[in-house]
From TrEMBL:
Domain Pyruvate carboxyltransferase: 14-281
Native source species: Nocardiopsis algeriensis
Keyword Lyase: yes
Enzyme Commission number: 4.1.3.4
Protein name: Hydroxymethylglutaryl-CoA lyase
Superkingdom assignment: Bacteria
InterPro entries per record: Aldolase_TIM, HMGL, PYR_CT
Length: 307
């Protein structure tokens, strides 16, 4: 099938959520300026991205790469139909996100206590209670809630994560107003068979909520996992321009699956995304220049086919 810049017209749509401005940058040694991050977000929107994880409302002393969230939200363009997502982990973060005017709130709830305690300073049960508080506080704001279940495929501290554990967490999330549940392979250990099985199990308790997947390519299975998710019926995938990003608890991690590499796979396979492959590749290279690093993505090196 011929490669189209945004995927074949008439092809079934797969939504790509760009997480580069948050997950892609949060572990980088070089901190991008507020101005650079605004440019990154606005250029991603110009390339066709319609949902973008723009900012994180965490303590800037703990994560200096995410400082300036309010300034970024004040500076980005607000094109119709574009959702700027803000990550929050507690009620204080939610207050900041609502005041800053985010389009959507995303809350991360790990599936394991080992990761939750080290990353968020609480147990999974405590984080679920915080999620319930955030859900109540969002009532009446008109801001939709999405929830990401991190370490859904494996944990750097607790090891293998039984599917039943993830299902239990999703069942609790289903008690909230969340419109979408994302399963995240935080440290890049999942394989396609696991993706298919976990999605089937979670789908039984998620109700009418959309399912989304977030993969890392740490062990070179990220794109195979993304394809397995789409074949299983998932129509929303996270990715990061240039393939930047990763988890501080995953040594030698190679980052998120790259937006441009994901687009190439999806477009050549007959799906439509509405995102420009050439625009994404150029932005991945731009990020590499700003971070003074070679992007992990391959498309910027090899080029599209046909060229």
């Amino acid at each position: 099938m011929a490669a189209y810049d945004r995927g074949p017209e008439g092809g079934e749509h797969v939504e790509v959520v760009e997480v580069g401005p948050r997950d892609g940058l949060q572990n980088e040694a070089r901190v991008l300026s507020v101005e650079d991050r605004i440019e990154l977000i606005d250029r991603a929107v110009a390339a066709g991205v319609r949902r973008i994880e723009a900012v994180s409302f965490v303590n800037p002393k703990r994560v200096p790469q995410m400082a300036g969230a309010e300034e970024i939200m004040a500076g980005v363009g607000r094109a119709p139909g574009v959702s700027h997502i803000g990550l929050v982990l507690n009620r204080r973060g939610l207050e900041r996100a609502v005041a800053a005017g985010v389009s959507e709130v995303n809350v991360a709830v790990p599936a394991t206590d080992g990761f939750c305690v080290r990353n968020q300073g609480c147990t999974v049960e405590e984080m679920l209670e915080t999620l319930a508080d955030i859900d109540r506080d969002l009532e009446g704001t008109g801001i939709p809630l999405s929830v990401t279940v991190s370490t859904a495929f494996g944990c750097p501290f607790d090891g293998e994560v039984p599917a039943e554990r993830v299902v239990d967490v999703v069942r609790r999330i289903a008690d909230t107003s969340a419109v979408e549940v994302a399963l995240a392979d935080t440290i890049g250990v999942g394989v396609p068979h696991q993706v298919s099985e976990l999605l089937a199990a979670v789908g039984e308790v998620a109700g009418e909520r959309a399912l989304r997947c977030h993969f890392h390519n740490t062990r070179n299975t990220g794109y195979a996992n993304a394809l397995a998710a789409v074949v299983a019926g998932v129509r929303v995938l996270d990715s990061s321009l240039g393939g930047f990003g990763g988890c501080p608890f995953a040594p030698a991690a190679t980052g998120n699956i790259a937006t441009e590499d994901l687009l190439y796979m999806l477009h050549r396979s007959g799906w439509h995304t509405g995102v420009s492959l050439s625009g994404a590749a150029a932005l991945g290279e731009w990020m590499g220049q700003r971070l003074d690093k070679q992007p992990p993505a391959y498309l910027g090196r090899a080029g599209a086919f046909p060229s």
